[in-house]
């Protein structure tokens, strides 16, 4: 079974991921940190979805859980009609070819003692695909695909700049012809002039190969240039999700509004005139979540009901969902 | 007279037998109360320029030539004793990573009070009380409790507020802030920039703000220097430089920043290639290999020349006064 373009490819239902953390105040006992709390999300084939939020909001944990790097505490991930929890380990291993990941730090994610050709070839070897000459041919093809000169293969990662290293990481992720790629902050470690190169490369590759992408990022301006849909995460939960233009032009959640208002624009006159909504305080600890709405401690519009009732993600029209009592007043 | 005058500053780092030039002839003036943005990509020499000014270079770094005159005093040849009087007291610094710039073994209170005692000659008790006031001023909640805590007990945003409190504690005339908000989340970043701007206005403190973020430059600075490969390639009033750039690098950088107020485009305009590494610089304009306007003359080094009003200069053969004779 294969989902056609635009059909759901990845369906995440009520996903919860918890970590057990030691806390000195509670000697002996472990506390539960709920990094991802009851998140549902559908990713359609060929589409890019951006997951945005600040550090600690659970966006990376969510992405890693989709790739199968964490035990799921609750919820299911259905990939192309198959519930991943029901696969045997052998099946899961074969299945993993279809899902790959691109990492944030191109310095930490490439083994400095391996030549580039071995780094890119490694997934092929791990899955026992082709013989040695077929694999080398595929490596050359991949290097060309990501815009690296063919002689790059015989060199080590230290010989490459940050942007070129990120291209190597992308080539490795593409080696097994994946359908779905989770890109965790793919450009945030790169310089401004290089960021644009990598954003363009990812967009081109998606068009050419029909990839489904989940881009995890804190940079709203970059994400806007490469995504179809946007999900905004706060403290482990999605507070707003919708088509790119709906969310960017008509943000409904106060948190989304604040996130958009703090993105500065390199135009001094505009910057002086622009209204910046500065959120007071800090993100509460995910070990000790606020009652009701988890954003209420920083929300300028919080009222008594926000303290009592947790708002649910509801449609505010044309598939633009928001979890806020301001938009959907409770009965 | 300018508060700070940096003239033809050159700093190099030794790696084994080789000397790598990192700052290659940087000159600028800073007036009292003014905010100067130093902007450029990683490795362009903006941080090393700042560290050279206060002579806090690591052992492998060395000022090769040039001068740094702060309030009439030449710092490049000043004695260690004289430098200690300037650093902290007159010139304070805030760094990107407050986890490493604060001493993990000192409480927040000691950290801030130390400078006040040393530079102001206050008693321990008075200095600690002043530290509490400063924490309140920079927006740290429950300052009394925070004074007794250690840096690791604070969040990144609070730590950076503590670092700012420690820096402004001795009422410096110049604050050097090196990527002060880069390691922080966007909403915290906005809080901190707001705080810096307020402190600076109230104290009439001159500031050198080092950042790679042109948006931050637009919000915070009066004037800006754009650095590339160890040199200033353009400088001027922030409105002029960002609205009417005089250097292809500044233009390329501005184009490649995605803006929330612009349309979504099919492909982002990008600069080809990557900045040169310090050891690999050839002859002529360092930006020429990535420049779309390159001409034969770019094989020679361009100097900063006027390209607009108000002291706006750029180092490009295709702009400036010598353009007429360029082709």
How would you portray this structure in words?
The complex is a heterodimer of chains A (331) and B (327). With 331 residues, chain A is of the alpha/beta class. Chain A has helices at residues 59-67, 89-95, 116-126, 132-145, 162-174, 192-209, 220-224, 244-249, 254-261, 268-273, 304-308; strands at residues 8-22, 30-44, 48-52, 74-79, 82-83, 99-102, 180-184, 212-217, 229-234, 237-243, 314-315, 321-322. Chain A has one domain: 3-Layer(aba) Sandwich (Rossmann fold), CATH 3.40.50. In chain A, the strands form two sheets. Chain A has an eight-stranded mixed sheet. In chain A, strands 2-1-4-5 form a four-stranded antiparallel sheet. The termini of chain A are far apart. In chain A, 44% of the residues are buried. Chain B is an alpha/beta fold. Chain B is built from eleven helices and twelve strands. Chain B has helices at residues 46-53, 80-86, 98-101, 108-120, 124-137, 143-146, 156-168, 186-203, 214-220, 238-243, 248-256; strands at residues 4-15, 18-30, 35-39, 61-70, 73-74, 91-94, 174-178, 206-211, 223-228, 231-237, 305-306, 313-314. An eight-stranded mixed sheet of chain B has the order 6-7-8-3-9-10-12-11, with helices on both faces. In chain B, helix 8 links the parallel strand 7 and strand 8. Chains A and B meet through helix 5, helix 6, helix 7, helix 9 and helix 10 of A and helix 8, helix 9, helix 10 and helix 11 of B.
């Amino acid at each position: 079974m294969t989902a056609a373009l635009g059909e759901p490819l990845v369906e995440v239902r009520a996903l919860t991921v918890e970590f057990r953390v030691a806390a000195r105040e509670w000697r002996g006992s472990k506390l539960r940190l709920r990094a991802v709390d009851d998140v549902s999300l559908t990713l359609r084939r060929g589409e890019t979805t951006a997951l945005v939020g600040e550090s600690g909001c659970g966006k990376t944990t969510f992405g890693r859980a989709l790739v199968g790097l964490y035990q799921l505490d609750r919820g299911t991930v259905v990939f192309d009609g198959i519930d991943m929890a029901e696969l045997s380990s052998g099946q899961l291993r074969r299945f993993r070819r279809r899902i790959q990941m691109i990492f944030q730090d191109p310095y930490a994610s490439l083994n400095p003692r391996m030549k580039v050709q071995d780094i890119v070839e490694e997934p092929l070897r791990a899955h026992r695909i082709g013989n040695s000459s077929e694999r080398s041919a595929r490596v050359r093809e991949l290097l060309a695909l990501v815009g690296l000169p063919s002689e790059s293969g015989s060199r080590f990662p230290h010989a490459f700049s940050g942007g070129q290293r990120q291209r190597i990481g992308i080539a490795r992720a593409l080696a097994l012809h994946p359908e779905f790629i989770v890109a965790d902050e793919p450009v945030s470690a790169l310089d401004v002039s290089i960021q644009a190169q990598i954003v363009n490369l990812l967009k081109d590759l998606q068009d050419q190969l029909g990839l489904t992408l989940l881009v995890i990022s804190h940079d709203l301006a970059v994400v806007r240039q490469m995504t179809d849909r946007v999900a905004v995460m706060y403290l482990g939960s999605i507070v707003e999700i919708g088509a790119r233009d709906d969310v960017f032009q008509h943000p409904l959640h106060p948190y989304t509004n604040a996130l958009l208002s703090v993105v500065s624009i390199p135009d001094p006159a505009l910057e002086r005139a622009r209204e910046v909504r500065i959120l007071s305080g800090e993100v509460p600890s995910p070990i000790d979540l606020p009652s009701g709405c988890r954003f209420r401690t920083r929300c300028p519009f919080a009222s008594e009901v926000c303290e009592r009732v947790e708002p649910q993600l509801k449609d505010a029209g044309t598939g633009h969902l928001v979890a806020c009592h301001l938009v959907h007043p409770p009965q | 007279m300018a508060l700070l005058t940096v003239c033809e500053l050159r700093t190099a780092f030794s790696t084994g037998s080789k000397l790598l030039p990192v700052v290659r002839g940087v000159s600028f003036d800073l007036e009292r109360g003014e905010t100067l943005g130093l902007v450029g990509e990683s490795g362009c020499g903006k941080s090393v320029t700042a560290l050279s000014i206060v002579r806090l270079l690591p052992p492998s770094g060395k000022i090769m030539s040039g001068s740094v005159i702060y309030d009439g005093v030449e710092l490049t040849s000043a004695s260690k004793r004289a430098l200690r009087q300037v650093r902290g007291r007159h010139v304070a610094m805030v760094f990107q990573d407050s986890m490493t710039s604060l001493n993990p073994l000192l409480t927040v209170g000691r950290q801030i009070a130390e400078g006040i005692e040393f530079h102001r000659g206050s008693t321990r008790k008075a200095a600690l009380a002043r530290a509490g006031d400063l924490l309140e001023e920079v927006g740290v909640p429950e300052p009394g409790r925070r004074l007794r805590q250690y840096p690791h007990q604070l969040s990144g945003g609070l730590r950076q507020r503590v670092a700012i409190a420690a820096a402004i504690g001795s009422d410096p005339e110049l604050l050097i802030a090196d990527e002060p908000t880069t390691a922080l989340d966007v909403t915290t970043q906005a809080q901190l920039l707001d705080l810096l701007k307020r402190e600076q206005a109230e104290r009439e403190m001159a500031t050198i703000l080092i950042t790679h973020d042109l948006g931050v430059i637009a919000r915070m600075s009066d004037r800006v220097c754009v650095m590339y490969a160890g040199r200033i390639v353009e400088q001027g009033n922030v409105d002029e430089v960002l609205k009417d750039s005089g250097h292809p690098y500044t233009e390329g950088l501005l184009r490649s920043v995605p803006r929330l107020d612009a349309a979504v485009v099919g492909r982002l305009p990008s600069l080809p290639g990557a900045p040169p590494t310090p050891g690999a610089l050839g002859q002529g304009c360092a930006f020429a290999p990535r420049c779309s306007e390159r001409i034969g003359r770019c094989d020679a080094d361009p100097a900063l020349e006027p390209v607009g009003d108000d002291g706006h200069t750029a180092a490009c053969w295709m702009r400036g006064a010598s353009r007429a004779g360029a082709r």
